Amino acid sequence: MIREARGKTTGLAERARRLRRRAEVLAAILVLFSMPLLWSLSQQVRPTPINALAQPVTRAGSLPQAPGPAQTAATQTDVARTDAAARTSRGESVEVAHEGPPTKGCDDPRVLVDRTHALPADYAPANLVSLRRLGVPVLGRDALLRREAAENLEHLVASAAAVGEELTVASAYRSYADQRASHARLVSVYGRRADKVSASPGHSQHQLGTAVDFTNAAVGYEVRRGFGYTGASRWLAAHAHEYGFVLAYPLDGEAKTGYGWEPWHYRYVGADVARRIRESKLGLQGFLLREGVLPRC
Ligand SMILES: [Zn+2]
């Protein structure tokens, strides 16, 4: 009886050992087959926090360079976007569909675009919508902004109007080609001094589709510093952040931003980020240097 029981125990132990070995082999095969998948997942491009990098780098990983012939060559998409801009200036409503893979790094509201960080020439934001169609007063036939920014701007302008402050949009989305043309125009008039007031192509926040320049009757519908002394400007300073907009180039901010005071230029970053910028007291540039993402797209 005892021997029989011992034999049974040995048999069971042997079967358990065999099962365990089979399980180990199976696990090893699974690991082997999942390696390529894990590797490809680890290669996915993610926006890089600015503070992770000591040197400003472009998406190619090199130091920023002035736009050369390769960047200025018009591509098919450039032509399509220029056409869209032309249709907009004729008063037609257009939505520019985004082509190609998602561009998270540049669509992120915290993307850093400044004197040393440029957007690629072929970057255009998705979901550009007509401000005129939303009832936002604009100079000229129309202006475009990303949908979320446009809808918040609509509320902002209506709230200002409710307390008697007029806000009209002088300029909103500008494509790389638009910026190149307007910058070249200014350079032809002011020479190198144009760089003080106008970003070179790729370096303009207007290419993001989230920046607006305001004006109103008090300054003759011009874009000038006198706007900074109007009631509308004071209202913006107190309330723009509630709608997700922040002043990008404040008074005495030139050493940080590279641009003089532009009381008319606001950028949409969303109410949450706008609140955090306000609380941090760093200003948009300082905050984005700390918590922004690089324009990799
Ligand atoms: Zn501007």
TrEMBL record:
GO terms for biological process: proteolysis. Residues 89-98 have a biased composition (Basic and acidic residues). Residues 60-109 are annotated as: Disordered. The keyword Cytoplasm does not apply. Its EC number is 3.4.16.4. One of its GO terms (molecular function) is serine-type D-Ala-D-Ala carboxypeptidase activity. InterPro entries: DD-CPase-like, VanY-like_core_dom, VanY/YodJ_core_dom, Zn_M74/Hedgehog-like. Residues 64-88 have a biased composition (Low complexity). Keywords: Carboxypeptidase, Hydrolase, Membrane, Protease, Transmembrane, Transmembrane helix. The chain crosses the membrane at residues 25-42. Residues 144-270 form the D-alanyl-D-alanine carboxypeptidase-like core domain. This is D-alanyl-D-alanine carboxypeptidase. It comes from uncultured Rubrobacteraceae bacterium. The lineage of its organism: Bacteria, Bacillati, Actinomycetota, Rubrobacteria, Rubrobacterales.
